[in-house]
């Protein structure tokens, strides 16, 4: 890896997108349930929702292919703005997600993922779909899945565990919010690079910068010649 670049590997489900909340809405609607009866505080196997071992795969496939789960999940608070600030400061954002596990559903998964990233204006330079995350080069990772966190760390990687109910028994580096992620990554990057700016000069802050620019009234400096 480059010595003058800091690459952050970013998981999506449960880190940037609120997968559990949207999956709960879809599952509840399909089964005529009140969503509030399905706790958001759940284990990795969804046992709290009464799932048998094979139930998650079946219902998740339906949610993805027939109800646009990957396109419609809400954004986790603070994720987009924090990623913009990190990207503006020179951090290379590499999205790393394992969403190609549904046979014959890859086109849907990839298309919905790209559309969701665009909708929420998430900055990234690479978008990687794969299962074995240790195969991706990054200086640090942010992930929620216990097995990914353990596997990455076992390979000597720096991994920030993003707080979720199903990973609380994992010790080590942890973020409870995107404010925590931003602080940790800033420190890690500064240690590697010998310092880093909080934001590159000449750039507006915030994930909505493009929309603000598109709707901004033209000034004398921005009007084409001859415009009044």
Overview of this protein structure:
Strand 2 (92-97), helix 5 and strand 3 form a beta-alpha-beta unit. This protein has 8 helices and 6 strands. The protein is 37% helix and 11% strand. The termini are far apart. Residues 209-228 have low confidence and may be disordered. The protein is globular, with a radius of gyration of 20 Å. It has helices at 19-31, 55-67, 69-72, 79-88, 106-119, 146-154, 178-193, 209-214, and strands spanning 7-10, 92-97, 126-129, 140-143, 159-162, 174-175. A 6-stranded parallel sheet has the order 3-2-1-4-5-6, sandwiched between helices. The protein has 228 residues and is α/β, with parallel strands linked by helices. Helix 4 (79-88) packs parallel to helix 7 (178-193).
Short description:
By secondary structure, the protein is α/β, with parallel strands linked by helices. It has eight helices and six strands; from the N terminus they run βααααβαββαββαα.
